[in-house]
Design a protein that fits this description.
Helix 2 runs antiparallel to helix 3. Strands 4-3-2-1-5-6 form a 6-stranded antiparallel β-sheet, covered by helices on one side. The radius of gyration is 18 Å and the shape is elongated. Helix content is about 25%, strand content about 30%. By secondary structure, it is α+β, with helices and mostly antiparallel strands. It folds into 2 domains: about 80 residues; about 60 residues. The chain is built from 3 helices and 8 strands. The longest helix is centred in the C-terminal third of the chain and has 22 residues.
Length: about 160
């Protein structure tokens, strides 16, 4: 596997698409693309373009750098240095996270949109469960903070 630079474009409806790029040993550039998923099926290799230039063009279109990742020959994406477990790890009882947001207002709106989408997904997953005490009450506060034009730090 080789290391790629992964970028993501978020649509206003909450969906997203990914694009990854790498420079090959001979100087050619290979890109992969597709809907955000664990595999990027599209692939193209070309000469006569610099990785820096092509990344700047994608950023100008609204793509945001996500991370350096490994992608195998079939297009399967792995975060760099992360070996996918076989079988999957068992579910944990809790998750702790922290968000430090110093973004422009448009990025804040994109974050709010993603939070709203995730809340809808969580609600759909838990509708038939009787564990309301596991619902974190800070989601609305996080949503409100992301809609403001100010920087914030939030954890949960």
């Amino acid at each position: 596997m080789t290391t790629w630079r992964l970028y993501r474009y978020r649509n206003r409806d909450g969906s997203s698409k990914d694009w990854a790029v790498r420079t090959n040993p001979g100087g050619s550039i290979t890109t992969r693309w597709g809907k955000t998923a664990d595999r990027l099926p599209g692939v193209s290799t070309r000469n006569g373009v610099r990785q820096f230039d092509i990344e700047k063009k994608k950023q100008a279109k609204g793509y945001v750098f996500v991370a350096e990742v490994d992608i195998d020959s079939e297009g399967k994406v792995f975060f760099a240095g992360h070996v996918m477990p076989e079988p999957p790890l068992p579910a944990m009882g809790a998750l702790y996270w922290q968000i430090e947001c110093r973004a422009d207002p448009d990025t804040g709106l994109a974050l709010a949109s993603e939070i709203r989408r995730l809340l809808d997904v969580m609600q759909a997953l838990t509708e038939n469960r009787a564990n309301p005490e596991q619902t974190w009450p800070g989601w609305q506060q996080l949503l409100d903070l992301s809609l403001n034009a100010e920087s914030f730090v939030q954890s949960g």
